[in-house]
Structure formats: C-alpha cells, structure tokens
C-alpha cells in the first residue's frame, strides 16, 4: 500500500482527494494537513510514502515544507508531488529545486493523479509534460531567477556526448521510453544513462535534471517545449 499524506489548506479539496485516493486499492490516506507546517510534522509522525502538497498554503508554504522534508535524513524515502492551480505558477521551479519529485495542475483528471502518485512513489519523477518546458523556460528568462539549489552546470563536463543527448531529452520532458525511441536505445539503456547522469550531477531526480538542462543552456527557452 502507498501511504499518502494530503496537504492543502482547503478542506473540500482535501476531502475530494481523500475520496479519490481511498478508492484505489493500492493506496491509503494516512493523514491530512491544512498548512505546510502541519504537513512537515505529519510527514515525520506518520512516515507517509508520498505527500501530495499544495504550493500555496498558510503558516509555511508548500515550497518551504518540501525543502524541510527533503532536508530531513529521517524522511529520505518520502516523496513530494506538488499540486498547483495554474500551470503558469512560477513557484513550481522553486518547488522542484526544493526537492519535489514533480508537479501536476489541480485540474488533472482523477486517473492521472492516481497514476502520478504511483509513478512518484515508485521512485520516478513526474512533470506535467506540456506546461513544464514553457514554465521553466519563462522563469529562467527572468534576471532574478534563483539558482542556489540546482546542480552545478559546470559538472556537465563529466558527461559523455551520449549522456548530454539523454539529458537534453529528459530536460524537454521525455520519459525513458521516449528517450530510448529518440536515440535508438533500449529502455533499460536509457534508464541506465539517466541514473548515471543524476549521479554525476548530484541531482536527486529527473525534476532537477530538467532544471539543470535549462540553466546549463542544453535546452534553450522555446526549444522542445
């Protein structure tokens, strides 16, 4: 069973998500939080596998809550799936840097949300494919875009030519199967490349690879979005 913690400041939204999650045979809601601070406390108390976290919450917003969860060694196995109302929410980039394993917009279809929970809890990362490229490209065009927690672009020098190709495709939102098809590789080989790239760049997951792909210039604003 996938143990899910729901964090949203709107009680009706939490209730709707709870009903949806409980309808799945392979997951259960172990707690609900109405603020970021409560989400962090409950993540520690309940040892949930995954937190479905709203970006905007009182007391402590979803980004700071995610950062605290990601920095807590005792919560190393806890994944965060960020939810936002709009796919233009520039705070999503900060959330990915803070340690979120991906994000979805709140109007995602119910079945897609359940699939996202399964994907992230299994250790993969998930980003809304359409909005991701547009959003990150737009935010990184801004002069004051934060860079503190992204992997160091200089580390790209450690990547082989093939790994740089793979990173470029991952940064554009392609999954392992799509990367494999684009480069004529097996899915297993593509997955191996992605794992090695994350190790060399010190990235936690694919979400950070998207960030470093744009910040390093491998993927330019407007390309592959």
From TrEMBL:
DNA-binding as UniProt keyword: yes
Coiled coil location: none
Residue span(s) of domain Response regulatory: 3-121
GO molecular function: DNA binding
Source superkingdom: Bacteria
GO biological process, alphabetically ordered: phosphorelay signal transduction system; regulation of DNA-templated transcription
Residues with the 4-aspartylphosphate modification: 54
CDD domains: LuxR_C_like, REC_NarL-like
UniProt keyword list: DNA-binding, Phosphoprotein, Transcription, Transcription regulation
Location of the HTH luxR-type domain: 152-217
Protein name: LuxR family transcriptional regulator
């Amino acid at each position: 069973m996938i143990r899910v913690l729901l964090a949203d400041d709107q009680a009706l939204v939490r209730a709707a998500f709870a009903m949806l999650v409980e309808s799945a045979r392979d997951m259960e809601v172990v707690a609900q939080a109405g603020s970021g601070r409560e989400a962090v406390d409950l993540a520690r108390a309940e040892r949930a596998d995954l937190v479905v976290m709203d970006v905007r919450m009182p007391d402590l917003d979803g980004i700071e809550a995610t950062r605290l969860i990601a920095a807590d060694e005792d919560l190393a196995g806890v994944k965060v799936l960020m939810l936002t109302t709009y796919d233009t929410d520039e705070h999503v980039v900060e959330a990915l840097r803070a340690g979120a394993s991906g994000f979805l917009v709140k109007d995602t279809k119910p079945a897609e949300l359940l699939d996202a929970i399964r994907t992230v809890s299994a250790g993969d990362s998930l980003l809304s494919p359409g909005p991701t490229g547009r959003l990150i490209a737009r935010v990184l065009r801004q002069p004051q875009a934060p860079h503190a927690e992204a992997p160091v672009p200089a580390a790209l020098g450690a990547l082989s030519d093939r790994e740089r190709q793979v990173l470029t495709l991952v940064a554009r939102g392609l999954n392992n199967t799509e990367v494999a098809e684009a480069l004529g590789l097996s899915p297993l080989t593509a997955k191996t490349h992605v794992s090695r790239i994350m190790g060399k760049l010190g990235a936690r997951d694919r979400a950070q690879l998207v960030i470093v792909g744009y910040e390093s210039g491998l993927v330019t604003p407007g390309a592959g979005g």
